[in-house]
Structures are given as structure tokens and as C-alpha cells.
Design brief:
It holds the Pfam family RVT_1. The protein is built from 3 helices and 7 strands. The protein is an alpha+beta fold. The chain has one domain: Alpha-Beta Plaits, CATH 3.30.70.270. Strand 2 and strand 3 form a beta hairpin. It starts with a strand and ends in a 5-residue tail after the last strand.
């Protein structure tokens, strides 16, 4: 029997800062005022790919600490066999993401007990 925590990262693109020299390419004018994005924006063709690369780096430490997880873009699943160890892994993982400045959507985390059958 495995335990499973589902976490959803909030506003994922807004966590990636754009280098100052590149911000000029993300400018627009509205009501006669100039604006430019300082963070990765929604709708940019490379946004999803860029975030996936950054997240892969962030999550690379998890297996080294015995944390089993599955990642699909901004949804993360933490898996564990033993309730006590699983609870510790979930807390450590959430703290690590928070320490790195990633926001976890707190309305959505779900911890469930399921028997997973892997074929």
C-alpha cells in the first residue's frame, strides 16, 4: 500500500526572473505608459519549456534524499510506502520548495492512501 500527496505549484511562470538585458523584448504600451515584464510570462512560446528545465533542476535533489515523486508540469506527486517516513518526506519536500521561493497552492494539497498497482 502506498501513500500519495498531490501538490500543485501556484503561478509557475512568475517564479522565473527575466535577465535585465532581455526585458526590452517583453515591453508593451498601455494607456500611453510603457511596461515590461520582469518575470516569465504566460503565453510566451518558450515559457513552458523554460519552467520545465528549471523545475527539473530543482527536483533533482529529491531522489538523492529517498523521496519518490512524479512530476507533470506544475503538478507534483510524492509517493511513499511507510506512513511515518512518507509524512516526513512530504514535509521536507514542501519546505524545500518554499525555501526556493516556489508557491504551493494550499487549497489543493491532497494526502491519500491508495494501493498502487504497477504493471
Amino acid at each position: 500500500m502506498d501513500f500519495l500527496t498531490s501538490l500543485y505549484l501556484n503561478d509557475v511562470f512568475l517564479h522565473i526572473l527575466i535577465h535585465k538585458s532581455c526585458r526590452k523584448f517583453l515591453r508593451f504600451v498601455w494607456n500611453g505608459r510603457y511596461y515590461q515584464f520582469r518575470v516569465l510570462l504566460f503565453g510566451l512560446s518558450l515559457s513552458r519549456q523554460t519552467f520545465a528545465k528549471v523545475l527539473r533542476l530543482v527536483l533533482s535533489w529529491a531522489p538523492e534524499h529517498g523521496i519518490r515523486l512524479v512530476e507533470y508540469f506544475d503538478d507534483l506527486l510524492i509517493l511513499g510506502e511507510f506512513k511515518k517516513k512518507f509524512g516526513i518526506h512530504t514535509t521536507v519536500f514542501q519546505n524545500k520548495l518554499t525555501d526556493l521561493g516556489l508557491l504551493i497552492y494550499t487549497e489543493k494539497p491532497v494526502i491519500i492512501l491508495r494501493q498502487l498497482i504497477v504493471a
